[in-house]
Amino acid sequence: MGHSDLEGESPQDSAITRDINRTFPAHDYFKDTGGDGQDSLYKICKAYSVYDEEIGYCQGQSFLAAVLLLHMPEEQAFSVLVKIMFDYGLRELFKQNFEDLHCKFFQLERLMQEYIPDLYNHFLNISLEAHMYASQWFLTLFTAKFPLYMVFHIIDLLLCEGISVIFNVALALLKTSKDDLLQTDFEGALKFFRVPVPKRYRSEENAKKLMELACSMKISQKKLKKFEKEYHTMREQQAQQEAPIERYERENRRLQEANMRLEQENDDLAHELVSSKIALRKDLDNAEEKADALNKELLMTKQKLVDSEDEKRRLEIESGQLKEMCRRELDKSESEIKKNGSIIGEYKQICSQLSERLEKQQTANKGELEKIRQKVEGCEKCSVLFNKEGRLKVVSVAKEGSEEDTDEEKEALKNQLREMELELAQTKLQLVEAECKIQDLEHHLGLALNEVQAAKKTWFNRTLSSIKTVTGAQGKETT
Amino acid sequence: MSETYDFLFKFLVIGSAGTGKSCLLHQFIENKFKQDSNHTIGVEFGSRVVNVGGKTVKLQIWDTAGQERFRSVTRSYYRGAAGALLVYDITSRETYNALTNWLTDARTLASPNIVIILCGNKKDLDADREVTFLEASRFAQENELMFLETSALTGENVEEAFLKCARTILNKIESGELDPERMGSGIQYGDASLRQLRQPRSTTAQTKQQCNC
């Protein structure tokens, strides 16, 4: 028995559970609610109801299943039950309003007519019909009421010989109890079937005799077929014989009944339809709402994507421009640096030229001064003026002393000196100017350098950050 | 059987599976609760003679299988039933909800004059009650049924249910509302005794009943 069988939802669950409690409740194996016996029995019945949807669970099955369970494990019992139901044809009895069961009753009565005519006539007199006592026999294959060892015999016989052994057993039962039954009236007979008949076979001896009798009875299939045919022609005749009005009334009643059930079913289905429609509509609405929201989101995302692409393009252009600008700026700065460098070089050259000239001038002056001193030394009057400090401290004294000779010379020297001093002052001035210029240029250079650096830095940062944002945005878009 | 009686009524016990129909019948006939009972397959039968309003009445009671599919088997027992016990289980709403179906069956398959008493069985299991007395009595009123809550376990109201039903039938016969003779043509009552009663009282030893079910 596959587990899938058990998982299917059987609508008859509660019915099965209820009947399991009432199947051999006095038997040790089946008496405990929730015990192994009941558990297995439930599983088999439920599995069968899922397995055979047309028949489903049918009261009576549980007795047969229980009998099988007393012999074999659950799975096998299920398989044998299926075999008996399908291959042995037990399920035919449950089909189409038990039509086949009624046919079997008819066959039994006809067999009685042949094998036990006196009992048949007696039952006819007391209006006892087979369905009143044999329903349980046939539907449970005698398993519900009789002692188990006898039941086992019957099932064995059935498995060997086929379902028609139910007639053998039924006839044997009737035959064995014939004498008692002949004494009873309608009620007495029914009561006799209920208690004394099963009771009789508590004696194994009696059970054995019964089985022997059952086996000894030869009931040909041909005969059963014949009775079956009879039954069907009888049914047809019955249908025809019925007064048309009665028939129509019956038909009408049946149809009304069917109609009522169908209407009920229709109502139920309509209700179900409406509720499922509502549910579906709700689902649909929800789904549409969701779809709308998703569409909106999609549109927004698309817009965002477009925006981002625009932004990206813009940023790319900007970054290109920036790069260009930076490159230009860099070029400019470099050329400026170069220019400044050359200016500095020029300036340095000028400076060195100037200092060279100054030196020359100084040496020239010194030479001249030396010449003068030598000349002064050569002159006695004037030598005093000079020697002490080498300066013309005592020019006034010397003036007096040398008088005319030196006067002219003095004048010339003085002029020369003045000229030289002038020249010196001019040179000094030039030097100061040059220094100023240097300072100015240095300041310019510093500024230029700063500018370059600043330009470099800001440009770099800007490009870097813009590139970063662009790549960042791109990264987002692509994901 | 040498019992004597004035009337013979055929009764039916119907209702969903597991409501305690067989136990009600057993309690009525044997006066005790049926422990360890198998579920009914097809039909079971029981009878008892009771005294109702000074008359002895024999009740022939058919106890039917509860599973719905057995209706086609039990249908033949509806015909000619004078009274019915319609049983549900007060601890199971499902069995209560099925009452409408059972009632429809009884009214269409049996005599339209069938006297039905609604029995809310398992009264002793009040803690598990799913159907209130009030609700069921309202249902009974709407459908012109008599109503009692019974317990096959304690026996409470079991006898009363059968007797009440029998008494109503008897009253209807006496008031002329039910004519057993006429009914006998189509839907039959337990009629042999009735016929006999109509004739000047003669032997009480009964001719065999003419059960035509």
UniProtKB/TrEMBL annotation, chain A:
Record keyword Cell membrane present: no
Chain ranges of the Rab-GAP TBC domain: 1-162
Segments forming a coiled coil: 210-325, 399-451
Pfam families: RabGAP-TBC
Keywords (A to Z) from UniProt: Coiled coil, GTPase activation
Superkingdom of the source species: Eukaryota
PANTHER family tied to this protein: RAB GTPASE-ACTIVATING PROTEIN 1, RAB GTPASE-ACTIVATING PROTEIN 1-LIKE
The name this protein goes by in its record: Rab-GAP TBC domain-containing protein
Source taxonomy: Eukaryota, Metazoa, Chordata, Craniata, Vertebrata
From TrEMBL, chain B:
Entry's Gene Ontology molecular function annotations: G protein activity; GTP binding; metal ion binding
Catalytic activity: GTP + H2O = GDP + phosphate + H(+)
Pfam family, one: Ras
Subcellular location: Cell membrane; Early endosome membrane
InterPro entries given in the database record: P-loop_NTPase, Rab4, Rab_GTPases_membrane_traffic, Small_GTP-bd, Small_GTPase
Keyword Membrane: yes
Biological-process GO terms, alphabetical: protein transport; Rab protein signal transduction
Membrane topology (UniProt): Lipid-anchor
CDD domains reported for this sequence: Rab4
Keyword tRNA-binding: no
Keywords: Endosome, GTP-binding, Hydrolase, Lipoprotein, Magnesium, Membrane, Metal-binding, Methylation, Nucleotide-binding, Prenylation, Protein transport, Transport
Cofactor: Mg(2+)
Gene Ontology CC, one term: early endosome membrane
Main location as per UniProt: membrane
Listed SMART domains: ARF, RAB, RAN, RAS, RHO
Main function: The small GTPases Rab are key regulators of intracellular membrane trafficking, from the formation of transport vesicles to their fusion with membranes. Rabs cycle between an inactive GDP-bound form and an active GTP-bound form that is able to recruit to membranes different sets of downstream effectors directly responsible for vesicle formation, movement, tethering and fusion.
Record-stated family: Belongs to the small GTPase superfamily. Rab family.
The protein, known as: Ras-related protein Rab-4
Species this chain originates from: Albula goreensis
